[in-house]
Specification:
The protein is 8% helix and 40% strand. Strands 13-14-15-16-31-25-24-19-22 form a 9-stranded antiparallel sheet, with no helix packed on it. The longest helix is centred in the N-terminal third of the chain and has 28 residues. It is built from 2 helices and 31 strands. The structure holds alpha-D-galactopyranose.
Length: 393
């Protein structure tokens, strides 16, 4: 072969290998995001990574677990409070953004915060007078909200270190399974409660939260997650322009302390009517408690999977749909954020800077005979599932 031909062939081989290498780097590194100016559509792989996140004040080691689906969804969850620290999803142009409020470091969480991204237990939301009677016996609970108990008491499940039972990528799922044993009498609640909370990220762009519990004495349980979402990006401003739909035509009416009166009221003709999509800001000024902080009674059967809510953010195009087996959802428009908390990347969190949709049993159910029961007895299994599905339009 003449010398020039060999050189040309060499050059061709080099060019092909450069193109191939660029393609492989693109495919492995870009995970369905915008890459080299193009949107790469090849599906990636599920992955799980466990790294140290620091130590609690009493010296317990805490980890942070990254679940990724290789298609742009990445959840970072710590076993301190089971907190979702960050959650990245692509916008309509494939550009990733972190859509939950929180802190970069464990320290931020240890200093105290309004339940950002945390698992809430034993009892999500309020129990009036911080007491309830079960099988003729009265139990007094820790008061941490005036005369009431809120979100499990002084040291709820959001402030304990959960054990990592499993952190693995399997097939089209990335799974983090956490467990916590709550002692008999903890925060005043009877019975030793063994809890398992499993976060599963799927190839189908879903984040599933499954809660399981068993007890050795009759008790009450109501577990949820308290993520503060802002679909335009955490710290990017208020959520008043987000469109919200809630699958409920009734809500639980409350007194001044936000304790249900027992009455289920119609949302029709009120600012709580989200049966058709409405922006959060449309009627928020008409809500007499300074914003939304209400439990909506979901249509459909408790215990069965059903749509709970759908949120659309027009500037990013992000859509989040929630399905749950729970009978209710607390819609909270972060009315208590006041700009004093600085979160991730130094972002300031102002009033209405996020929304929470906490799927749950109704607040104060232990004191309301007409509400679906939250009682768990020995031999029974508590199990609820909530799924968040992400897309863009
Ligand atoms: C829930 C409650 C609110 C508030 C927040 C946390 O959504 O209903 O009243 O306590 O949690 O700040």
């Amino acid at each position: 072969m003449p010398w020039t031909e060999t050189r040309i062939n060499d050059a061709k081989v080099k060019l092909i290998s450069v193109i191939l290498t660029a393609f492989v780097v693109c495919a492995s590194g870009c995970h369905g995001m915008k890459c080299c100016g193009k949107k790469f559509k090849e599906p990636g792989k599920m992955s799980v990574k466990v790294e140290p996140f620091g130590k609690t004040q009493d010296g317990q080691q805490v980890e942070i677990v990254t679940l990724a689906n290789g298609k742009g969804l990445t959840a970072r969850i710590t076993n301190y409070g089971g907190i979702v620290v960050s959650f990245e999803t692509p916008d309509r142009n494939g550009v990733p953004g972190d859509i939950v409020l929180g802190f970069d470091k464990l320290d931020g969480y240890l200093k105290g915060h309004p339940y950002f991204g945390a698992i809430i237990g034993r009892y999500g939301n309020r129990i009036g007078g911080a007491k309830f009677t079960l099988d003729g016996k009265e139990y007094k609970l820790a008061k941490n909200d005036g005369e009431n108990t809120l979100h499990g008491g002084v040291k709820g499940f959001d402030k304990v270190v959960w054990k990592i039972e499993k952190a693995e990528a399997k097939g089209d799922k990335a799974i983090l399974k956490l467990s916590y044993i709550s002692k008999d009498g903890e925060e005043g609640y009877p019975g030793e409660l063994k809890c398992i909370m499993t976060y599963t990220l799927t190839m189908g762009n879903k984040l599933e939260m499954k809660y399981e519990a068993t007890t050795d004495k009759p008790t009450v349980v109501n577990l949820t997650n308290h993520a503060y979402w802002n679909l335009a990006g955490q710290g990017s401003g208020d959520v008043l322009g987000h469109e919200l739909m809630i699958n409920a035509d009734k809500y639980t009416a409350v007194d001044k302390g936000l304790i249900p009166t027992g009455e289920l009221k119609d949302v029709k003709g009120t600012p709580l009517d989200f049966t058709k999509p409405m922006t959060i800001g449309s009627r928020i000024k008409e809500v007499d408690i300074g914003g939304y902080d209400h439990n909506f009674v979901l249509k459909g059967k408790g215990g069965k999977m059903k749509p709970a809510a759908r949120v659309y953010e027009p500037t990013s195009g992000r859509v989040m749909e929630i399905e749950t087996t729970e009978p209710g959802v607390q819609f909270y428009s972060s009315n208590f954020l006041d700009g004093t908390l600085k979160g991730k990347e130094g972002k300031v969190y102002n009033k209405y800077g996020a929304f929470c949709l906490e799927t749950q049993h109704y607040p104060d159910s232990p004191n309301k005979v007409n509400f679906p029961s939250t009682v768990l007895r020995p031999g029974e299994k508590y199990e609820t599932v909530t799924v968040h599905k992400f897309s863009t339009k």
